[in-house]
Amino acid sequence: MLLKADTVTKDYVKDAGVFADIFNYYIYGGRQVILPEQLTERDSTKIALPYGADGAAVPVQKFRDVQKLYAAMTDGKMEYVLYGAENQTEIHYAMAVKNNLYDALEYAGQVEEAAKSHRKEMKRKKEQGETSAEEDRKTPNTGEFLSGFWSEDRLIPSITVTIYFGPEEWNGPLSLFEMMNVSDPDVLACMDNYHVRLIAPAQMLDEEIMKFRSSLREVMLFIKYSKDRENLSRVLEANEERFREVERRAADVIETITNAGIKYDESEEVVNVCQAIREIRMEERKIGEQDGELKKAREAARNFYNLGIDVEKIAQGVGYAVDTVREWLGLKS
Length: 333
Known about the structure:
Number of helices: 14
Low-confidence stretches: none
Helix content: 40-55%
Largest sheet: 5 strands, mixed
Order of helices and strands: HHEEEEEHHHEHEHHHHEHEHHH
Number of domains: 2
């Protein structure tokens, strides 16, 4: 089940609209700054980024569950940011270390690839005999040569957000310092903390969840109240227009995480979650009524039997088969 949940949530977050929604919420408070069309998905292969001071392309390796490159024109120049999403269906108590490692590996990889790019570019220039003043100016000094990172080089920022899809409150550490038992302020002053950037529905006010613009709003609301029938009904009613048309991938996440019993055809592009929940509640009531009627029939059969009435007549009276009534009464057929 865990593997399925991880697969479903990863597939959902890979959607550019949902991915942009996550970072627009976390960074910009819901303002639509990052547009889906400005995002380029990174997969297990490397992609080339305009990176080196000499304009050489640098391939960068993907580490996170889902990672996309954001490219936008700012003040007349193109700027890039790497956004990474870590999907959690269970609480990870070392998330600060995990995400910190991912960011560190990302930057280390950029430095390493910059060095490779510069070496390749210098070799090309040497082979082609480029000796202009401009090219001579970009000959690396000793420090640049040793590090592979030139003074003009700049890292591409990497931001990681963790999305917890569970209905429980996240009780794991949200920083490196919380994972340590150090109180000496002088020691702490020499250390760099790392904070987990977390989205967890149980710890969000409804007003915060409403800042999402994609179907992530319905996913977070449903998960938050999935164990509270009364409030879930309230939320579904208050947001019925949106819950009537939930995209199937979002419905997959809701059902996989909450096991609500929502039934729908996998060929459907949208799911009426409100109607599905109503049908579930109706079925529950029907089963409850049937269970109540069965209980009454068993009690009546026991009472009639204690009065000495024949089993065949009891069965006829309660409307069940003779063998069934005998089983209720513990009699041999």
